[in-house]
Sequence to fold (211 residues):
Amino acid sequence: MEPPKEIKENKLLLVEGADAYYFCIWAYQAFGAAGIQVLDFGGIADLSLYLRLLSHLPNFEKVSTLVIARDAEDNPTGAIKSIKSTLRKIGLPAPAEPFSFKGDKPRLAYMIFPGLVKNKGGKTSCKPGTLEDLCLAIVRQDVVMECVEEYTRCLKGKGLLIRHLHKLKLHAYLSGKNEFAGLKIGEAAKAGAWDWGHEKLEPFRKIIQNM
Fold:
């Protein structure tokens, strides 16, 4: 983790890793937002120290909105508890639920990739997964995904162990598109790989537009 260098904007979006960093830079511009500084806090274990360092930088008192984004991984509930615990230790407001704001100066929210799913009864909860899973959900109806699924079945049929299925599928999808082959998530975002109007991005869009 590199410590934060300076605060340039009064709206801060803290993200987990380089892929999320570049993805969110292009996302907020596509959503029509402005005046947002995206910062990579490193791994989730680095968030507490990063926030402490950030809070001591000049101009932190001018920050009006701070949003944190991280992966749910296999445990959305654990991811939410981790963020809330970290915020409370730093003395920052901790919203009870993801994708909602709390506090003032800074207003604070956190977003969990890959987003929300409706449960029985119409209630929503965070899905397990990652930013890669969100991207895969956006392109699920693309014809290339049929080939990706066939490729995955072939690998499994050969007895190969796939440790990171979401990463394999996403890079296989991008490789199947001439204009996106070889690109990382953020690079693909810049190149127009993701439909920024897709319904799966709606909770992220609402938070970023209201920063």
In short: The longest strand covers residues 65-71.
